[in-house]
Amino acid sequence: MTTQPTYSNPRRSIPVAKEGLPFIAIGLGLTVLAALIGSEVGVVLLGLITLFVVYFFRDPDRPLSQEPNAIVAPADGKLLKVQALSPSESPLGMETFKISIFMSLFNVHVNRSPAEGIVENIVYEPGKFFSANLDKASDQNEKNRIFIETSQLGKIMLVQIAGLIARRIVCWVQPGERLHRGQRLGLIRFGSRVEIYVPATCRIVAKQGQRVKAGQTIIGYSR
Question: pLDDT digits over 174-192, tens only?
Fold first, then answer.
């Protein structure tokens, strides 16, 4: 018997985040304009740029991990580091693991919930726009902190961090909302970073340098 994949949200009519539609429309309009004035070079260049914008804002449905007690990656990209923090270093006020993921221009930029839980609070912090793969981006860049109360882990925190090119953090959830593991919860435009803070009692299995996919790659387990 074949088991149908479970998806975080209902299938969309088009596999593109709605935030990308204005950029795609502008690109198409400029491409058509270039065609009308007879600029072949303009058509090719603008057409390629428009295709890249479509590619960047892609939001594919994907089967999600169903393993019990699993913590899944909140973003697509490269895992930069797993860092153990003391209670005085952690924004959660307890011993935690901080897991940092860098999303390049070529990764899917839709972020997903790492575990099932309820959004307790969301805190936006303005900041700078250093390259998201640098350590100082974690502390100094513009960010959006999402605190989630889970039954399997207790309190965790997911942080959306803007990068050098990204100047827009989008959050699709609000306090009091219940999240399913792997549910879409936002995106960051044009290269960025996502971090997750989980209790140190978790068993982390993801490794530095590993490529991960949001909602699919297991980065750890609750004990």
Answer: 999 999 999 999 988 776 8
Query: CA–CA separation, 26 vs 24, rounded Å?
Result: 5
Q: Quote the pLDDT of residue 67.
A: 85
* 3-class secondary structure, 111: strand
Catalytic residue among 90, 113, 192, 222: 192
Measured over the CA atoms of residue 164, residue 175, residue 97 and residue 79, the dihedral's sign is negative
Domain residue spans of the chain:
18-56, 70-221
The helix/strand/coil state of 40 is helix
CATH fold for domain 70-221: Glucose Permease (Domain IIA) (2.70.70)
One-letter amino acid at 205 equals: V
Q: Is 151 a catalytic residue?
A: no
Separation in Å, CA 201 to CA 179, 194, 198: 22, 21, 8
